[in-house]
Structures are given as C-alpha cells and as structure tokens.
Design goal:
single chain, four-stranded antiparallel sheet, alpha+beta
Length: 763
C-alpha cells in the first residue's frame, strides 16, 4: 500500500510541475525589445505575425503563461500588451511597426526580438520543431536525462561532447546563437581594431561591456563614473606592471563576457571614455537627419505626400507615416510643427524626435534627452551641445567628431544652428572649433552672410576684439533686417564693453523693437536691451519709467534688469538723480524684487556718505540676513555715529575685527570724548592725522611736542617752551632780538594753525 501511495505522489508532483505556467521574461536593449520563454521539454513552437500583433504558439499539455513579470523592465513603446489567449498561444499586441526575430537557445529557450523597421514588411511566420531524441536504453535499463545530456555528441561549429555553453538570453548581445561563437572565433571587425588575441584591448572591451550593461540596468555598479583615457583614438593603456597576464582560458572567458554582456560595437569605447550609470550615446544612424527626406525634392511636395499618407483605413493614424512625416519636418527645420504631429499619435511620442523638435528651432529641450552625451564621439555630442545653454568650460569634447556631424547637416540647418553651435563652443573654451564652424559656413554659402557676420561679431566681443566687432555690427544694427534685433543687443554689449555712449538712433531702435516684439519670444530680451541702452547713456529717468512697465515680462528677467538698473544708479548717477530713484516711494526694491544685498548695502552706504543716516538705517532693514552680517553692522555703526550715537555704534562693532572697524571704534571713542584712547587706537592703525587731532584735543602737549613736524606738533612745542625773559634792569639788544624772533615764530605758527583748521564757507 505504501508503495502505491509513493507512486501516486510522484505522479501528482509531475503533473503539477508539468502544468506550471511559463514565465514570460522581457528586457529592453535600445534597438530592440527581447522576450524569452523557457519551453517544456519536447515542445514545438511557432511565431505567427498578424496585423499589429505577433502570436507565439507553444505545443504541450495545459500550456499557460505567467505575465506577472512581463512589464517590470520594459515600457510599452514596442509591446503594448501581452495576452494569454489559451491553447498555448501568447498574443503580443505591438505598439510599433516592428519585425520579429525569433530563435532558440540551447534547445529550450525561445527568444523573440522585436525591433522597429519603419519601411520593412512584417516578418514571415517562423517555426522550429525541437526534436528530442529519446535516450537509447542501456544494458542496465533506462539512462537518466543528466547522463544522456553529459554524453551527447554535438557537431558543427560548436562541436564537442556534453552540454553547450550556457548563456543568459536576457543579456543584450546575442541576437542569434552564432553571434557569440563568431565573437569567440573571429576578431572584432572595426577600422583600427587590434587582433582578437590582444589581451589589453580585450580587457578594455570588457570594461566597456560592463559599463553598457550597467547603463541598461543589467548590473548595479558600486561607482558612478569610470574614465579610461587614451592618448590617441584606437589605442589603449598598457596593463600595469604588477598585473598578471591572462591565460588562454581567461581570454576565452573574456570573449564570452564580451559576447554576452553588451550589444555595443565598442565605438564609444574607442573614444577613451566609459560612463557607468550615465545615458548611452545615441547612435549616428538614428540622427542622420540629412536623409530624413527625399533628396532634391521641394518641401511642399514632400509635406503634401506625407500628409496624404498620414491617415489609413477607417481614418486611423498610420504610426509609420506619422513618424516619417515628423522626420521630414525636422529635416526642413520645422520643429514646432513636428512636435504637434508627434503628439497626434497614440501613446508617448518618441523622446528622441521630441527633443529634436525643440533643438532644430534653437530652443532648449525641457526633457534633456541628450543630457550627458557631450562626450560622445558622434552626432549625439552635437545635439547635446545645442541642448545645453550652460555647457561651461569643464566639458571634454571631441570637436573633430562634432564638426563632422555639423558638416553632415542639411544646408538650411547649418545656417541656422551654426552660430548657436559656435556660441556654445566658445563658452566651453573651444574658440578654435567655433571659428572653424564659421569657416565651414562661409565655405558652404560662398560668402559671409549676415548671420555669419553677426556670429563672428559676437565672438569678437567675447575675445575683446572690439574694433572688429564694431565694424560688423554697425551695418547689421542699422539696415533693418530680420537680424537687426539681435545686432542691436550685440551693439549695446559693445558700448558697455567700450564704456561709451550709444548713438541716439540705436536707443530709438531698441525702444521700437522692444515695443513691436513685446508679446513674442524675443520680447523679454529686447525689453531688457532697451533699458540697458538707456542706462548706458545715463538716461535714468527713462530707464526707470520703462522698468515700471514690465507687463508680460518673466519674473527672472525683471529681477535681472532691476538689479542692473539700481547698480548703475548707485555707481554712475549724480547725487540728486540717485536720491530721486533710490528713495522713490514706488521703488520698493527690497525683498523678492531681485535687487541683491550687495546693491542694497551700497545704497545704504552712499546714503550715509550723503548725510542721510536715518534713511540709511531704514534701507538696512530691507536687507535679508541681518543678524551677524558684518557689512550690515559696519554700515549701521557709521550711520549711528553720524546721528551722534557713538555708544550704540560701538555696540554694533563688538566682536568685529579689521582696520576699518578699529578706525570706526576710535572715532566712536573720540565722539564720546575719550581722546586719549582714541589717539592710541588711531596710532595703532597708522591714522597719524587723526591721532594728532585726538592728542591735541586731549591736551597731551608733551606727547605732541615729540611728534612729527606738523603744525599741531609745532604749536605743542611752542606751548611747552618757556619764553625768553628779560630783566627790566638789564635790557640788552640780544635779548630784545631773541624775544622778537620768538614772537615772529609764534605768530607764524598760530597763523598756519588757523589756516589749517579753517572751516569751509558752506559748512
């Protein structure tokens, strides 16, 4: 009885194991989405494409599919949905016009790769029967599956005995089993590749593969960025002397890692940089914008053709036609129109095309699709630079590759994007590459067009070649072309650099363009330029009137302009003009209006110098961060001393150090009548004149008599000296002459002292 129960239990376990659903595993690998199924032993399979679907059929008793993990690592850009329709069939609903590439790995792993093929027909049905040869019985009975697998003889390219090499099908390289074998038996086919048995290059390839795998989420690196630097493209650093050489087995293992971990071609690694955890570089074939439209075709004809193909059966939008239409619009530079077309489709639009829709119009990409790709050795670096207005001088750029990518752009895009590219390159410290951009533009158009002239003028401004910039900007800013607004802004920058006034004609044009373009994208910049022109010419009244009319201007531009206006008012305006606008009731320039603390403190300091200490104290109340701010306390102390409050001023200076503080502290003591202490402090900081004055006021004649040869020291010596006396009974001519000389010297000293201490008539 026990024996029958054991047999029944085994049968039940086998039945349960056999009826377990097949787990559908997926992975995203850039150009394609991978789906993997582990087939039951001996099962047949087939792949049948349909209209917007691909159906995978698997034979076997009670075949079901576990879809719980299907969308954990992929989005729905290629696979919209997965459905177990029963009878061993899995229906894949496509979100793109994709081709299905299916193959079998190690007899029971079914791999299905879905990749976009815009103009290719849907794949033909594929199927493959897996013939499992039953083990031959031995003299001792049946052979176990493990023994049969170990004794299996394999023929062909991977000949051998026993099971074949096992690889994880979710790793993103092997599109077919032969790919891995090819990588094991053939050198890597690149233009400047070393032989396949070159161990140092193989190690660098492994590093690149691991980096790509980490980028795609297959690995979890413990570091963020690794850079492999090489002196020249295509060469690799030598192995450190203390590193052991790889054996043949190690090299073979390395080749397996190369074959299994990545689907890259190592082109980015040849640039000498590997980024772990950053975005991978968009390949050049996806950015071949020059071939996104029919050559030598009229734009109107091309657009009409694409619009007519946009709607298919039942007025449904053809996704492939929509994508092709958007690419043609981008080719001709219609970025905003391409964005509208892309948003007409179902689901999320292609982020690459959305990003380009901003960039071809010269606008920054809010999605930052190309962020971190400035170091790429290809077209991606070009678009990354165009998308980053704050590139900075620390960027490492492959300028030769960037210029090649620029050269490949359509002519009309070169003309529009060239000056912007040159501006970004100049800002990053690549002035020579920026000049090369203009050379290429001039060669392409045969002359220095207005846009090229404007770009070169801006470069001259940045390089300090002000005369060359003026020669180019004068005609551009006065001829009334589409570039005149930009030229006027550059002309204002030139006047600021020269510290020279602007011609009245330019100021009038700046005002006219600011009014005309007020409600456009250029409006804020021209409004800012108009106020700059007025400030540069010292027209503060007109500038502040224009500053108050900020309708429709973004807050950040308002704050920047307001700060500039008050800074110019502080440093350049006359006293009456300064007081008029600094103290205007409606000029509440503190708080969140954009005026910085430095400017507010400068205004308060100038008010103290003008004798308006009480107003200066009110100004200080507008400054953020009161507390222990040194500058605020020093200015407040100066204002309090001006208001004859030296005790309060000295309290403000407690704990502060510095020569300016010591002078103010001595002055406070002088105001309090402590002239002895004030004299000592003035002498410690080297303020001899102030020390002499304090010594004079303290009546320290003896100390002053030993001082320098100033008039006060001379007066002190005079007071200290006993005059020549003469006995009335013994009057001599010599004594009379001595008394006369002393009297004359005293008169001269007193006369000089009075002249030195004379008050001005207006005080």
């Amino acid at each position: 009885m026990t024996r029958w129960l054991a047999v029944l239990s085994l049968l039940l376990v086998a039945t349960v194991a056999q009826s377990q659903p097949m787990v559908v595993r997926t992975g995203e690998h850039g150009d394609f989405t991978r789906l993997v199924l582990r087939l039951p032993d001996g099962a047949d399979w087939n792949v049948v494409p349909g209209v917007g679907t691909v159906t995978v059929g698997v034979s076997g008793p009670s075949v079901t599919f576990d879809l719980s993990q299907a969308f954990q690592r992929i989005d729905r850009s290629r696979i919209a949905d997965l459905t177990d329709v029963g009878n061993g069939s899995l229906e894949i609903e496509l979100a793109c016009r994709c081709e299905a590439d299916s193959f079998l790995v190690d007899t029971n792993l079914l791999v299905l790769d879905l990749s976009e093929a815009e103009d290719a027909p849907l794949p033909e049905p594929q199927s493959r029967e897996v013939q499992v040869q039953p083990p031959e019985p031995s003299s001792t009975g049946s052979v176990s599956p493990l023994v049969a697998d170990l004794s299996k003889v394999r023929v062909g390219l991977a000949a051998g005995i026993g099971p074949g090499r096992q690889t994880d099908p979710l790793l993103p390289k092997m599109r077919r089993p032969a790919d891995a074998l090819d990588r094991q038996t053939q050198p890597i086919a690149t233009e400047d590749a070393e032989p396949a048995n070159n161990v140092p290059q193989l190690g660098e390839q492994i590093a690149g593969d691991l980096a790509t795998a980490a980028t795609q989420g297959l690995l979890s690196p413990s570091i963020q960025t690794v850079q492999l630097r090489t002196e020249q493209r295509g060469t690799v650093d030598s192995i450190p002397p203390d590193a052991g050489s790889l054996s043949t087995d190690s090299a073979d293992l390395a080749r397996q890692l190369v074959a299994g971990v990545t689907n890259a071609t190592h082109e980015t690694l040849r640039g000498g940089r590997v980024s772990i955890g950053a975005d991978t570089c968009v390949p050049d074939r996806k950015l071949d914008i020059a071939h996104w439209s029919e050559p030598d075709s009229e734009p109107a004809v091309v657009m009409s053709k694409h619009r007519s193909a946009l709607f298919g059966e039942f007025d449904r939008i053809d996704k492939a036609a929509l994508r092709s239409y958007a690419r043609s619009l981008l080719h001709y530079g219609f970025g905003a129109e391409a964005k509208v077309i892309l948003e007409m489709g179902e689901g999320n639009p292609d982020p690459l095309l959305i990003s380009l829709s901003y960039l071809v119009d010269g606008r920054p990409d809010p999605g930052r699709f190309f962020a971190g790709q400035e170091n790429c050795a290809g077209a991606a670096a070009l678009w990354a630079i165009l998308s980053n207005p704050n590139l900075g001088s620390g960027a490492h750029l492959e300028t030769d590759m960037i210029l090649q990518a620029f050269e490949a752009l359509p002519k009309h895009l070169k003309e529009y994007l060239g000056p912007l590219l040159a501006e970004r390159l100049t800002g990053a410290g690549f002035a020579d590459a920026a000049r090369d951009v203009y050379v290429r533009l001039e060669r392409a158009f045969g002359l220095e067009s207005d846009r090229i002239a404007l770009g070169r003028a801006n470069m001259d401004l940045q390089d300090g070649n002000l005369d060359d910039a003026a020669a180019r900007l004068k005609p551009l800013s006065e001829t009334g072309t589409s570039l005149t607004p930009e030229a006027i802004q550059a002309r204002i920058s030139l006047a600021e650099a020269q510290n020279a006034p602007l011609p009245d004609r330019i100021v009038e044009l700046a005002e006219a363009y600011a009014s005309e373009y007020r409600d456009t994208e250029q409006g804020a910049g021209l409004w800012h330029a108009h106020i700059r022109s007025l400030l540069q010419n010292g027209a503060f009244d007109q500038a502040f009137n224009a500053l108050h009319d900020a309708r429709g201007i973004p807050d950040d531009i308002q704050s920047e302009t307001r700060e500039l206006a008050f800074h110019q008012l502080l440093t350049r305006a006359e006293d009456l003009t300064f007081l008029k606008h600094a103290l205007a009731a409606d000029d509440t320039h503190g708080g969140e209006s954009g005026v910085t603390n430095d400017t507010l403190l400068g205004i308060a300091r100038r008010l103290v110098d003008l004798g308006m200490a009480d107003v200066a104290l009110d100004q200080l109340d507008l400054v953020a961060g009161q507390g222990e701010d040194r500058a605020i306390r020093v200015i407040r102390a100066a204002a309090l001393m001006d208001l004859d409050k030296p005790e309060e001023a000295e309290i403000q200076l407690i704990g502060l150090r510095g020569e300016d503080v010591e002078i103010m502290r001595a002055e406070a003591r002088r105001q309090m009548g402590d002239h002895v202490f004030a004299e000592k402090m003035f002498r410690e900081v080297g303020a001899e004149d102030a020390a002499t004055t304090s010594a004079w006021l303290s009546g320290n004649w003896e100390e002053m008599a030993n001082g320098s040869d100033s008039v006060m020291n001379e007066a002190a010596r005079m007071l200290q000296q006993a005059g020549t006396s003469m006995d009335d009974n013994d009057v001599t001519l010599q004594a009379a002459e001595d008394i006369f000389a002393e009297s004359e010297s005293s008169r001269d000293t007193i006369r000089t002292l009075l002249e030195t201490t004379r008050l001005a008539p207006d005080t």
